[in-house]
Each structure stands twice: as structure tokens, then as C-alpha cells.
Design a protein that fits this description.
Number of domains: 2
Radius of gyration: 18 Å
Mean pLDDT: 96
Structural class: alpha+beta
Distance between the termini: 41 Å
Oligomer: single chain
Low-confidence stretches: none
Strand order of the largest sheet: 5-6-8-7-9-10
Shape: globular
Helix content: 25-40%
Order of helices and strands: HEEEEHEEHEEHEE
Number of helices: 4
Number of strands: 10
Largest sheet: 6 strands, antiparallel
Strand content: 25-35%
């Protein structure tokens, strides 16, 4: 990429971010592994999950921010915070996630006792949303859930108090999705999120 091409590319990103500021496009949080290149290249992000030995404060999962455009996601860099002035872009991104259409469905292979939202917009990120998780609680009739988000586009949700056979099957599918070399969607994390009453209350490291 020549200097002129890079300048044009960055200008187009700024234009897309400005459209989010103006309300034409929407901003969303996007989960990434801590190895995501944007972490070292100036992207705007927050640490969402630390490594198991969190005494060292080593990030495992980060939350980036992106504008949804007709041509795909455009990620914000740290400088783009200034575009929003005094507005809380983090809250705006969270609110937009809350407002997503209901995308959950029961999985027949789990006797309709597990939810997925695979292939929907921001399927993994639904785990960050109180509103979306409240829907999951209501569907599964349980206030405590485990959520699997091994790769981009993969999410499974199961009641914490499920029987051992169902939990074992859930873990098997999680590990399959994590290890499946034919699945080219980016890894997120080999963990389960513990969701209680709509909020993330802990991590199960696998």
C-alpha cells in the first residue's frame, strides 16, 4: 500500500466513524482474542477477560468497537474517541447490542434444552448484553447460565443446573468447535461465561 493509498484508506475509516457519530451507522462492541492484531496497532478496546492466573493481569479476551457498514465492520482506533465528544460511545455500543433483534433458537440435538444464535449478527457479543441474556434466561427458565463462545459466530447457552449428560455433551460440542481445524472463523476463547440474572458473574477456564 502506497502512502497515498494508506491516507485514502484511513480517510474512509474516519468517514464511516463520522457516520456512526451522525446516527447513519451504528456502533457495536466486538469480542476478540487478546492476540488480535488491533491490540498492538492502536485499536480502541477494553480488556474483558483475564488469563486464568489473573494476578499477572494478562488479557485473554478484549472488547473492541466497530461501526457496522454495508461493506462490513470498521474498527475504531483510539483517536476516534474524540469524534464522539462528550458522548459515551461505550454505552451507545452496548445499547445497540441490547436493541438487536431476538436471534436465539433451541437446539434439537440437545433436546431443545440449549440455545444458540449461530450465524446471526453479533452472535458472540449477545453474551455481553443484559437484555439479550434476559431473553436467554426466559427461554431456558433458568437464572444461571453457561455460555460458550469459542469462535466467531459460535454461541451456545445452557442452564447451569442441567444434568451431567447434557453438560458433558455441551462441553464436547464446545471443545469440538474450539479444535475444529475445518472451521476458519477466528478463535475467541476456550472458556465458558457464567451468567447470572443477565450479568456476567464469572469465568470457567477449560
Amino acid at each position: 500500500m502506497t502512502d497515498q493509498e494508506k491516507k485514502q484508506y484511513l480517510a474512509e475509516i474516519d468517514q464511516d466513524v463520522q457516520k456512526a457519530v451522525d446516527g447513519e451507522y451504528k456502533l457495536y462492541p466486538v469480542l476478540q482474542p487478546a492476540s488480535w492484531p488491533g491490540v498492538k496497532n492502536g485499536a480502541l478496546y477494553n480488556v474483558e477477560v483475564l488469563e486464568d492466573n489473573d494476578d499477572d493481569k494478562i488479557p485473554l479476551v478484549v472488547k473492541s468497537y466497530a461501526v457496522e457498514t454495508p461493506n462490513g465492520l470498521v474498527y475504531l482506533s483510539k483517536k476516534h474517541k474524540d469524534f464522539f465528544g462528550n458522548r459515551n460511545l461505550y454505552q451507545e455500543a452496548s445499547d445497540n447490542l441490547d436493541d438487536l433483534e431476538q436471534g436465539f433458537k433451541f437446539e434439537k440435538e440437545f433436546d431443545n434444552k440449549v440455545l444458540s444464535s449461530n450465524g446471526t449478527r453479533f452472535s458472540n457479543e449477545r453474551a455481553l448484553s443484559y437484555t439479550q441474556m434476559r431473553m436467554a434466561h426466559d427461554f431456558l427458565e433458568s437464572e444461571e447460565l453457561f455460555v460458550s463462545i469459542p469462535r466467531r459466530g459460535n454461541i451456545l447457552i445452557i442452564p447451569k443446573d442441567s444434568d451431567k449428560e447434557l453438560l458433558d455433551m455441551f462441553l464436547y460440542v464446545h471443545r469440538h468447535n474450539w479444535n475444529d481445524k475445518t472451521n476458519h472463523n477466528a478463535h475467541i476463547a476456550n472458556i465458558l461465561l457464567y451468567i447470572k440474572s443477565g450479568n456476567s458473574e464469572g469465568i470457567v477456564y477449560l
